[in-house]
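ok so for the tutorial part 2 we go from a plain amino acid sequence to predicted structure tokens. step 1 is just haveing the sequence, like this:
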Amino acid sequence: MGIKSLKEINKTGLCIKSKDLTVEYQNDRCRESCGQQVGNICDKGCILYLKKDHMESAFKNSFKFFRAVDIDGRKFDTVVFESDSKILTLLQNSDDFLKIQINHLYN
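step 2 — the prediction. this is what the tokens look like for a chain of 107 residues:
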């Protein structure tokens, strides 16, 4: 992975929530995507998908990938990790990711 690729990692949103869905931490990219949520109960797209998934299958202490999650009219690919005490979400704007992949194909 070259330096150019490492810069792309900084475009990944990171959110850490307690099990009751209270947002405890957001990086800058996550705040840009979801708005300032620290201290609030999260009700954005990835959590809606997580709640739906809990009803359909076991997901304790594992991770789940959700593609094209709608967050305020924009699409994000998300990976949600759930442990005994925390929920960690990584999110990447789907359009940004597609541009990165196309760029790698041509360079």
